[in-house]
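User: Fold this; tokens only.

Assistant: Input:
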Amino acid sequence: MKDLNEIRTEIDAIDQELTRLVERRLKLADEVAAAKCATGKVVSDPARERAILAQVTNLVGPDFARGVRTVYSALFGVSKARQRVRMGRTQPFLEELAKAASAPAFPEQAIIACPGSEGAYTQQAASRMFEVPTILYFNGFENVFEAVEKGVCAYGVLPVENTSAGSVTAVYDLMQRHRFHIVRGVKLKIEHVLLANPGAALGGIREISSHPQALAQCARFLQSHPEIHAVPLGNTATAAQELAKSGRTDAAVIASRACAELYGLEVLSDGIADSTYNYTRFICIARDLEVHPNANKFALMMSLPHRPGSLSDTIAKFSAIGVNLTKIESRPVLGSAFEFRFVFEFEASPANPDVRALLAELSADPEIEHFTFLGAYEER
């Protein structure tokens, strides 16, 4: 039996030979690009790829077939990406990524659409993103998307994920229906308190209202008070505003401490969230693509082919270039039977040529029925 060092020496020799062969194959792919340019042929040739996969699979035993197919699928992707770059057949967003370092800085002031009312966590996130925001409030997430899409507001701010309650699925569902791009992100520490009108006491509270995410983040507190009925509303600050108008002393809201002063409410209890580490991620959206300097995160939306391994094959492509996928969110396609779209979020620099090559490959892959570049942005 060979010892470990002997095996590794043999592997090193194979790697050297394999690397030279891969380099040679990629150089030939560049020649293929020139030939296709001359003849007007398209980059992708699925029939030839299937034929090659069948051929190389038959050269190995069944125990190695899947591994060989995976390696060759990745090689096809790299080859096609190089061809598209050389043939100039890339998406416009790739040109913006190439110019990111010299792009204008993120604006300090703008008209911003936010859901809810003054004192909402979304308003606090908007104030973190912009030095001088002019905020217009809208009822619900979809109205924020529409305000940006129609040009009523230059930007909109929306929550997408919480460390305790998970994804804001309503926002991800709306992403499928609206034209927008993500241009900035921020993580905001959420500190929920229980607010009530002056004169109210915790023992007399029978109803607590707030946004469903806030209620979920304070589940243990609500479970410890089974006599209190939880009522979901569209926004934490709006719930506080409505409570103040009602004058009720048997009802309370879960909202930010800022809402107490804004609406003349009193803090009945603080520290009511399940976790002291309670953060929400917010995104800033714009109608048109903007890539600003210091962008460090990307977001894409794709419909992957309905075949075994399509998701793992896609994930492997990110891993192959050393990119860290930070989130994969799957949402059903409305009006279809068990079809899903995936939102991929990952950390990378627009200056990374491997990232741009992968995006060129994915955006032009005929097997991906729906590809949307959601944005390259800085998240703080």
